[in-house]
Design a protein that fits this description.
The structure holds 2 protein chains of 2 kinds.
Chain A: H1 3-9, H2 13-19, H3 22-36, H4 44-66, H5 77-98, H6 101-121, E1 128-131, E2 134-139, E3 144-145, H7 147-165, H8 170-191, H9 195-213, H10 216-235, H11 237-247, H12 258-270, H13 295-328, H14 332-356, H15 374-400, H16 408-417
Antiparallel strand pairs in A: 1-2, 2-3
Chain B: H1 6-27, H2 31-40, E1 42-47, E2 53-55, E3 61-73, H3 92-99, E4 107-113, H4 115-124, E5 129-138, H5 146-149, H6 161-165, H7 167-170, E6 175-181, E7 187-189, E8 204-207, H8 211-227, E9 232-238, E10 245-251, H9 265-268, H10 271-274, H11 284-293, E11 302-305, E12 308-311, E13 314-317, E14 325-328, H12 329-334, H13 338-345, H14 350-359, H15 388-393, H16 402-414, E15 417-419, E16 424-428, E17 434-437, E18 442-445, H17 449-465, E19 479-489, E20 492-506, E21 513-520, H18 529-549
Helix pairs in contact in B: 8-18, 11-17, 16-17
Classes of the chains: A mainly alpha, B alpha+beta.
Amino acid sequence: MSSESYRIDYWDSHIADSIIEPEESSKGLIQDFAEDGWSLRSNSSLWIIPLILNCFGILMIASLTSQGGSGITSPYGLPFKQLLFFILGFVSMLTICVIPLAYFRRMSGFFWVCAMLLVGATLIPGLGVKVGGARRWLNLGFIQFQPLEILTLAVTIHLAKRLGSSKLNGEKCFLKVTLLIWLFSVLFLFFQPNFGGIILLTGICMSMHVVNRGWKYPLRAAIFLLLFFALMIYTENYRMWRLWAFLNPWDDPMKKGFQIIQGLVAFNNGGVLGMGLGKGLQKLNYLPAAHTDYIFPVIGEEFGLVGTFLVLALYSFWAWKCYQLYRRSRDPSRTALIWGMTVSILFPLFINLGGVMKLLPLSGIPLPFVSAGGTALVFMWVRVGFLLRIGKELTDVAARHEGALDDLDLLDDFVWNA
Amino acid sequence: MESRRGPWVVFVFVFVFLAWKLVEYHCFPDPRVYAQAQRQYWSLTPIMGNRGYIQDSRGNTLALSVSASSFFVDPEHWSPSSASSLIGLIPENIIQKISGPLEGRYVRILRRSTPELAQKIIDLKLDGLYEEKEKKREYPHNTLLAHVLGYCDFDENGQSGVELAWNSTLYEPPGHRILIRQTGGRSIAIGDDGDYEKEPEISNLTLTIDIRIQYIIEKYLDEAMKLHKAKWGAVLCMDPKTGAVLSMASWPTFDPNNREGLSYPDRVLNNAIGRAYEPGSTFKPIFMGIAIEDGLVRTNETFQCPARLKVADGVITEAYKKGMGTLSTPEILIKSSNVGMAQIGIRSKPLDMYRSLLNWGFGKIGDIELKGVEKGLILSPGQWRGVVPANISIGQGLAVTPLQLIAAMAPVVNGGEYVSPYIVQEARNSSGEIVYQGRKNTIRELLTPETCSWLRKAMRDTVTSGTGRQANTPLTELAAKTGTAQVAEKGKYVAERYVSSIVGFWPYENPQYLALIVIGEPSDGKYYGGEVAGPVLKKIVEGMADLEAFDDGKRL
C-alpha cells in the first residue's frame, strides 16, 4: 500500500485532485463493476428502503387516482408519471454512485453559485413560472422544476466541504462559513417567496454546523432566526392564515381548518387495520392534495395504524442505517455531508408528517419518495446516490487498509490527521 | 466530536413522538374528528319505493312511476359564485337565492327534473351540489280516466281514486340506501351489486276499465257538456252480467300530471260515485220492478193519467205538462208518465219499499274498490208521508249516485241478479302474487226473469217509440230509459235546474253493455233527458259498435 492510496480517500480536493491518476481511477471504476456493480450490495438498506417507499407511493397514487379525485383526468396518468420519475431518479442515483466524491467536492462552489443563479432565474418573468402568487418554478420548455431542489443539494455539498476544510474556529467559523453560505442561499428565496424552502435550508445549514462544530452558535442564532421567522409569518397574510388554521382548525372546520381536519379524519377512518387498498373515502374530494402533501393520511386511512407504523418504521430504519454510515466516517467534512444528505431527506419528512398530523403548520412539502412529485423525487434519489457513494468510498478505504490497520476508526482518524 | 451523536438522538425522539401521535390519531381520535367522520359522507338516503303501475283490462298502462332527479345544495360546501353556471337550467329566482348566503345544510333547487336536464346539471360537477333520486308518477293518458285513477302526492302516496283506495298494494315504502357523498352532485351507492338501476318486480293493478271505451265516452261526454253548458256530468258503462265497470267518467275533469288542477275540488270530485242526485225517471223501471215483484201492480193494468194529480199534500205533474189519457202499465214507462207512476207509488208500503230500496243498493255505500263513494239518501220509512211515496216512484225525493243507479239497473238487464259492481280485475303485490281478483259477485236475486224481460221490453219500446227516440240507432238494438229530474234547493224544486239522464243497455236480445249518462244542470234551454242525454248515448253506442267492428275478435 503506497502513501498515495491513503490520499485518494483523503477528501480534500486540493490534495486528492493532484494525486488521483487517470488510469488508476478508471481501473477502479471497472473493478467496482466487477466486484459490486455500483456498490449496491454493500449498503443495500440505504437504497432498498427508499425503493420500497417509492413503489408503495406509486401504488397509493394509483389507488388515489383510480377513483378520479379532484383535478385528475386520466386514471393512470399520475402513477405512470411517478414511475417515470422514479426510473429517472434511480438512474441518477446509479450515476452519482460511479462519480468520485472528489469531483463534487472540487466543483461544489461552482455548483452552488449555479444553483443560486437558477433560483434567481425564477424571478425573471418568462423563465420563472408563477404558481399561486409565488415564483418557484423554472420553465425550460421541456421540463419544469424547482431550482430549490438543486440549491438544497449544492448547499449541502458546499457547506460540508467548507466546514471540513475551514481552519476558522468558534464564532468566526459560524459567521464566515455557515451563516454566510446560508444567507446567500436563502437570498433569492425571499423574493420568490418560498418560506418553506427557507426553513428547510436553515434547518440543514444549522444542523450541519451543529454536527461539525457544536450547538453553541446555532442555538444563539436560533433565537434571532425564530424572531425573524415570526416576523415573516406576521407580515404575510397566508402564513398567518395557515398558522391560525393550525392552531384553531375547529373554529372553521369547513374552510380554514378543512384540510387539517380531513387529514385527521383519514387517520380515524383507518383505525388499526385500515379500510383496505382503494377503499378510502377521504380521497373523494375530501382531502385536497391527497396524492402529494396528504398522501400519508391516505395511507393511514387505507392501511390503518399498521400501514403508517410500517412507513414510519421504514424511515426510521433508513435513518438508522444513515447513522451507521455516519458512525463509520471519521472525516468531519464527509461526516457533515452524510448528515446533510440524511437531514435533507428527514427534514422534509418531519415537516410533512408534522403538517398532516397537526403538529406543525402546513407547508406544502411532499413526503420523500412517496408523494407524487417529479424533480423532487429525482433529487431524493440523487441524495441516496451520494450516501451510497460515500458508503462505497468508506468501504474502499477500509479494504485498502485492511492489511495495515484493522481498526477503521483509527484509520480514518489517521487519514484525517495526515 | 462530542456532538456527533447528539443530533441523531433528536431524531429518535421525533420518531417516537410521531409514532405515539399516530397511535392517538388512529385509535383514540378527538371526538370532534370522530363526529366529523361519522357524518360527512355516510348518508342514509331514503329511496323512493317503486310504486306499482296501473293498467286497463287490455294491458294499457294508465299510471306508472318513473325516475326523476331532484337537486339540492349544501350551503357548507356550496360556493354562491357557482350559481351563475346554473343559469338556464333552474328557475331564475332560485339562482338568485343560491347566489347569496344560505343557512342550514339543505336547500332544494330543483324537484323532479327530466333526465336530460339532470345529466346537464350533474355534468357541471359543482361542489356542494347534490342529486337525489326520486320517483315521479306519470299518467300517460293525461285527463283520461283521471277520476278513477286519482293522483299521488310528492311522496308517492295515493291521494284519491284507485291510487288512494289501493295505496296499500301499490305503495312501496321507501327503502334506505347508504351513499358515499361526493362533491359535485355525485354519490356512490354501496352495499348493492351495482345493477340497482334494473327495475325490480313491481306491484300492479289491472282495472276492468277498457281505455278505448273510456276514450269514447269521455269524448262524447265532453262534447255534450260543452254543447249544453252543463255544470257536471258522469258516464258509467258496465257489463250488466258481471258488474265489471268498463268505463267511468266524470266532468269537469283534471290532469293528474298537472298539480295546479288539483286545487279545484269540483274538478277532482268523481261525480260517478261521489255525487248524489235525484235520478228522476231513470228510477222508474227500478221502482216498477219492485212494484211488480211485490204485487203492487199488474203488467196488464191501465191508469188514467191527467196532467196533474193531487197526492195528499202535494201535486204530481207530467213532465210535458199535459195529460196522457189512459195508459197501460208498460206505457207508463215508455212515455214516462209521472202521474201513472205516482198512482203505483202510493200503493207501496213505506217499510217494505224502503227495505226493497236498500236491497237494491240505494242509501248505502256499495263495495266497489274505490274511495270517495257517496251513499246517497233515502228518507227513513217514518218520513214516507203524503206525497213522498209518489215522489220516490218517479225518482224524486231520494238521492242516488250514478253508480248506485247503474248497479240497480243491472238486475233489470241481466235477469234479476244484483251483482256488486267492481273496477279492479286483478291486483298483484311486488312479489308477483295475486292479492285480489275482481269477479262477478251476486248479492241477491231481485227480479224474476219474467219481470225482467217485461221491463226490458218496455225500455226497448221507450227507444223505438217513447221518450228515448233520440238515442235510437240503427247499428244495434238499444233499450233505454230517459230521466229528467228537478233539482231541489232548500227543500223546494227550482225551475231551470234539471238533471238530464239516460240509462240504456244493448244489444236488446243479449245485453252486453249497460250505460248511464247523467248531465247535471244543462243551461242552454234543453233539459229533457231524451233531448240532452239521449244523443250522447246514441253516439257512445255507435262509437262502441265501430270499436267492435274493428276489434280483433277479442271481447272488449
